[in-house]
Amino acid sequence: MNNMVIAIDGPAGAGKSTIAKIVSNKLDINYIDTGAMYRAITYKAIRDGIDINDEEALIEMAKKTQIDFKDNNIYLDNEIVNEEIRTLSVSGNVSKVAQIKEIREIMVELQRKMGKRYSVIMDGRDIGSYVFKDANLKFYLTAGINERARRRYVELKAKGHKINLDDIVNDIKNRDDIDSKRSFAPLIKADDAVEIDTTSKNIEEVVSDIMEYIK
């Protein structure tokens, strides 16, 4: 690979996206939120009334969907959908969509093309273990489930969503179960990834840890 590829994997709510954005700015490289790609597909399905359990319809829709990133914005068919893909309904269904093998293959192809075009930092579930096995650096961020739920609760409340913390805990448990048990490219820590437990660390501490490894 001619470009630098940094992979950040981990479960929902571990802080991957927040950390990856900051590191991308410090290194002046492109940030690709792969989880947002699956959220965009899920959001489009919900918006267009496609049954989340109809795999064939979801796959056909994904084949005809354009997803791109620019200036830390995600574009779905040339429309910015940063906020639309972060609703609780999308969160509750994204793991079902992301476990479909054909959809993952479509998204992975897009991700690999991005990694060939320019230096990137990508976060997701299977970047270091599957999408970019030869990534220059790999990190695996994790945190206790209650802390991950608390973070998501604070994030959604700040955006005006009416939510229950117990519902978020159950949602994250469900997503962890689906992500780690799916047959194709499950959530696992790559053997050569640096694991960082973010439970008791603030954002600045995690960024500092990662920048030290990169240096």
TrEMBL record:
Binding site for ATP: G10, P11, A12, G13, A14, G15, K16, S17, T18
Cytidylate kinase domain span: 6-215
Family annotation (InterPro entries): Cytidylate_kin (IPR003136), Cytidylate_kinase_dom (IPR011994), P-loop_NTPase (IPR027417)
SUPFAM superfamilies in the record: P-loop containing nucleoside triphosphate hydrolases
UniProt entry keywords in alphabetical sequence: ATP-binding, Cytoplasm, Kinase, Nucleotide-binding, Transferase
Compartments, record wording: Cytoplasm
Keyword Lyase in record: no
Enzyme Commission (EC) number: 2.7.4.25
Catalytic activity: CMP + ATP = CDP + ADP; dCMP + ATP = dCDP + ADP
Molecular functions (GO terms): kinase activity
One Pfam family from the record: Cytidylate_kin
Top-rank EC class of the record's enzyme: transferase
Keyword flag Membrane: no
NCBIfam families listed in its UniProt record: cmk
Family: Belongs to the cytidylate kinase family. Type 1 subfamily.
Protein name: Cytidylate kinase
Organism: Tepidibacter hydrothermalis
Gene from which this protein is expressed: cmk
